[in-house]
Design goal:
Elements (H helix, E strand, L loop, with lengths): L1 H34 L8 E2 L4 E4 L5 E4 L2 E7 L4 E5 L3 E5 L2 E11 L5 E2 L6 E8 L5 E11 L4 H6 L10 E9 H4 L8 E7 L7 E8 L3 E4 H10 L16 E4 L1
Parallel strand pairs: 1-8, 2-15, 10-13, 10-14
Antiparallel strand pairs: 3-6, 4-5, 4-11, 5-7, 6-7, 7-9, 9-10, 12-13, 12-15
């Protein structure tokens, strides 16, 4: 009888230890999940939270061209040729995708913009760096955009070929590569993965109201994610 009781106690002890270990693992996993949700994008870039520093000029090596447009059901995307990349801290990040959000996702001191372009790059280790470019609509038309938007896809999966390819670098020709904000954030679409290096250019590109309406023909619905808390992060900006 004593042997049965002893075995029973041992089993209870083992079960209890197993339960404690499992509980600790679950708590740890939950804490990790919680902590990884604190560096999300987009954010409201406020002067009060800026850390001014001497940031290096962005090394863009965009040798290719925009050859077409397609709509994936969420965003207007550009097709590209050739290899295009940027150098960040001596690492090569290859341009993988260019797409647009309307309205813009990031805000500057609470100010909203009409459109935001995302130039998504990735290095050989899978690290992601995104250049965000803000657009505002008005009277002034953008010559490069006019060529790109000559014909646009209006249904999911539709692809448009641009007869005369347009240099990718022309899209950013009016922007300084020395003035930008940078911070650690996330993808703004599922799975909202963190560890993304964000670079938001300070210069805003002008497009006409008519050009904006063309973009909205594709983005009939708001495809911008809501602003996320900054939490304990800081934002660096050029001096």
């Amino acid at each position: 009888m004593s042997d049965i009781y002893s075995n029973y106690k041992n089993h209870v002890l083992i079960f209890t230890l197993y339960s404690v270990i499992l509980l600790v693992m679950l708590i740890s996993q939950n804490s990790y999940a919680t902590s990884t949700n604190k560096n999300q994008s987009p954010i409201n870039i406020m002067d009060a939270y800026l850390l001014k520093a001497k940031l290096p000029s962005l090394e863009l090596n965009y040798q290719g061209s925009i050859t077409g447009l397609y709509y994936d059901g969420k965003s207007l995307n550009f097709s590209m040729n050739e290899q295009n990349f940027i150098i960040i801290n001596d690492k090569k990040f290859v341009l993988k995708n260019i797409h647009f959000h309307a309205p813009a996702e990031h805000k500057i001191n609470g100010k909203s913009y009409d459109v935001e372009g995302h130039f998504v790059h990735e290095d050989h280790d899978g690290n992601i760096a995104v250049i965000g470019v803000l657009f505002k609509s008005g009277k002034k038309a953008n010559a490069t955009f006019e060529k790109i938007l000559a014909e646009i896809p209006t249904s999911k999966g539709q692809k448009i070929t641009i007869s005369k390819p347009i240099a990718i670098s022309d899209l950013l020709s009016s922007c300084s590569m020395e003035k930008y904000y940078t911070y650690s954030g996330s993808l703004t679409t599922p799975p909202f993965s963190e560890g993304v290096l964000w670079i938001v250019l300070e210069d805003v590109i002008d497009i006409s109201s008519a050009q904006y309406k063309k973009i909205k023909q594709v983005h009939k619905k708001n495809n911008a994610r809501e602003i996320q808390p900054l939490n304990a992060r800081f934002i660096s900006c050029s001096l």
